[in-house]
C-alpha cells in the first residue's frame, strides 16, 4: 500500500485546512486508515482514524469537535477536515494504514504498517 498525503500549508489561528491521503491498494477492505502528527521535539501522536469497512471513527481528545475524518471509497482517499485550528496543531501530519485492525487499536501508531510521506501544517497566532 502506498499513501500520498497532501493539503498542508500555512493558516492563521481559527482557520481551516483539509488534508487528503490517497491510497493505492487493491482493496482497503478491513483496513484502518489514520492520521498522526509530529511536532518538532515531540513524539508522533494520534489524531484521528477510521475503519474503511463500516466507517467507525476515533479521535484524540485534543481534536475532537474540531477535526473530521472521512473517506471517498471511489477515490480510495481519506480526508482530514481541520477547523478552528490552533497554533498547537502545528506539526507534520502523516497518514497511515493497517490491515485487519480493530477499532480499539486505531490510535496506536506502532501498529500501522504503511505510512505516507507527511505534509506540513503550520498555524500562526
Query: Strand portion, in percent?
Result: over 45%
Roughly how many Å is the radius of gyration? Answer: 13 Å
Give the CA-CA distance, first to last residue.
37 Å
Number of strands: 11
Return the structural class: mainly beta
Description of the molecule:
The chain is an all-beta fold and 125 residues long. The chain contains no helices and 11 strands. The protein has strands spanning 2-6, 9-12, 17-24, 31-38, 45-51, 57-59, 67-72, 77-82, 91-99, 114-115, 119-124. Strands 2, 4, 5, 6, 9, 10 and 11 form a 7-stranded mixed β-sheet that branches. It is globular. The termini are far apart.
Short description:
By secondary structure, the chain is an all-beta fold.
Features:
mainly beta; 11 strands; globular
Amino acid at each position: 500500500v502506498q499513501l500520498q498525503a497532501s493539503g498542508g500549508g500555512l493558516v492563521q489561528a481559527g482557520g481551516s485546512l483539509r488534508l487528503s491521503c490517497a491510497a493505492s491498494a487493491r482493496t482497503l477492505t478491513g483496513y484502518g486508515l489514520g492520521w498522526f502528527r509530529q511536532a518538532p521535539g515531540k513524539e508522533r501522536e494520534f489524531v484521528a482514524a477510521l475503519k474503511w469497512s463500516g466507517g467507525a471513527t476515533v479521535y484524540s481528545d485534543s481534536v475532537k469537535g474540531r477535526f473530521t475524518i472521512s473517506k471517498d471509497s471511489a477515490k480510495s482517499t481519506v480526508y482530514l477536515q481541520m477547523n478552528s485550528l490552533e497554533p498547537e496543531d502545528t506539526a507534520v501530519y502523516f497518514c497511515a494504514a493497517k490491515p485487519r485492525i480493530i477499532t480499539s487499536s486505531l490510535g496506536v501508531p506502532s501498529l500501522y504498517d504503511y505510512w505516507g510521506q507527511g505534509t506540513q501544517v503550520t498555524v500562526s497566532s
